[in-house]
Amino acid sequence: MLSIKALSVVCTSTSLFVLGVNEIASASSFNPTPVFDNVASYTTTITEDKNLADIYYPNPTDLKTSNYSFPVVLLLQGALVDKSNYSNYAQQVARYGFVVVVPNSKRTDPIFGEALLPQTSQIDTVLQQIVVENKNASSPIVDLLDTEKVGLLGHSLGSAVGLSAIGNLCVTPTLCPGSFSRPKQIVAGAFFGANLRNQNDVYLPINNDGIPVALLQGDRDGRALPFRASLTYDKIKNPPAALINIKGANHFSITNTNNPTGAIPDPINATLKQDVAIETIARWSGLFLRASILNDKDAFNYVYFTGDAADPNVTVESKRVPESASVVSLGVLFAYLTITKLRKRINESKHH
């Protein structure tokens, strides 16, 4: 039978990783819940393309008296899905310390006619708009934005748009009706139900130039199939990157309700409750953005090394981190997982 002595041997050997031991203590006490309790929102018009956008922002009691500077996150909608269907998800991501912009993209398409379809040009128009909002004295978020740090979120077709933008690609007229050049403000992207391939079903290299990318994928997604996320992940050129699998989630586990009005339905039902799925996707999205944009060390360790062990609904199947971060973190990961497994085996042996 395993004993506490076995644990102490492991702890002694891993204590050689001095920084690693400190990190383990930090990981065990890290609380992955949102940073802010309250969020407010308002709707504005994107000046350049006349589309409406909902903007969600942290709303602490000292919002106007403290020196806040929130990075901006643009959420690119799924095809035919109205911006309002992302309100629960967007609010929860905003609570991690971001201003989340959720625009509609209404345009005319040869297949769908006038429809809600995201496109790369939205990125430029939203970047222009956030500068306006940050300077407008009547705006609720005046002087609250860091307009030089922008993250991308996406769902379904919006994820493909975001991935093509990070890869500096103009793949098809559906995603990119014209030319596109990735703005320097884009510093991270997290995408749900994502894959990127051309009209010939060829998966495209994503030259992300070190911009962190996370793919979040439901294992019951009947629209953006899980194997397509894996093939897309393999095409991301540079770390850091993560493929985050969510058990029981389908294609619309990110929206307020399953199969929202107007969307092409997912033929597979989710087994994970909608509110649990939204919280899970938002938590992993928010912490990934904190790690990538705000250099939050605890969030980084949660995403790449400890979070999936603590979350029964998530498996981080693939993790790639920069070499400078991986040396210490691999020691942390080894110690954390070894101790966790030994404790579990000891507990199980006590019941036999």
Describe the structure.
With 352 residues, this protein is of the alpha/beta class. Helices cover 36% and strands 20% of the residues. The protein is built from nine helices and eleven strands. It has helices spanning 4-14, 18-29, 87-94, 121-135, 157-166, 226-233, 274-293, 297-310, 323-350, and strands spanning 39-45, 52-58, 70-76, 99-103, 106-109, 113-116, 145-155, 186-192, 213-218, 241-246, 314-320. The strands form two sheets. A nine-stranded mixed beta sheet has the order 1-2-4-3-7-8-9-10-11, with helices on both faces. Strands 5-6 form a two-stranded antiparallel ribbon. β9 (213-218), α6 and β10 form a beta-alpha-beta unit. α2 packs across α9 (323-350). The longest helix has 28 residues, at 323-350. Mean pLDDT is 88; it is low at 1-25.
